[in-house]
Amino acid sequence: MDIIPIAGMLFSLLMVLVIGGLILLFPISRRLGKFLEIRIDERMEWDTLPKDAFNELMDVVEELQSEVARLGERQRFVERLLEPGAVEPDSAQGASGADRIGGDSAVGDPD
Fold first, then answer.
1. What whole-number distance in Å separates Cα of residue 90 and Cα of residue 96?
2. Rounded to two decimals, what is the model's pTM?
């Protein structure tokens, strides 16, 4: 049996299937594209905020950023105090906490 007529027949059959598939799937793909475009447009409408709501959110974000910065500074201060060999702020100034407050340095000693 000769393979050339079978190859020709398979090639013709494949071409018919490809062209038929394109003809059938083209309208479906266009419809699907329009549907997805509508869905994206609807989602974008929900994603956009009014100007005043956007400004309010930006103010809240700025407040949060400043609060985080303050907390970070406090954390760094506490970490410096807790480092081994760190100098306490009171001893660096030469006064104890009781002296600053106005009390006696010897707590519990009656005069």
1. 6
2. 0.37
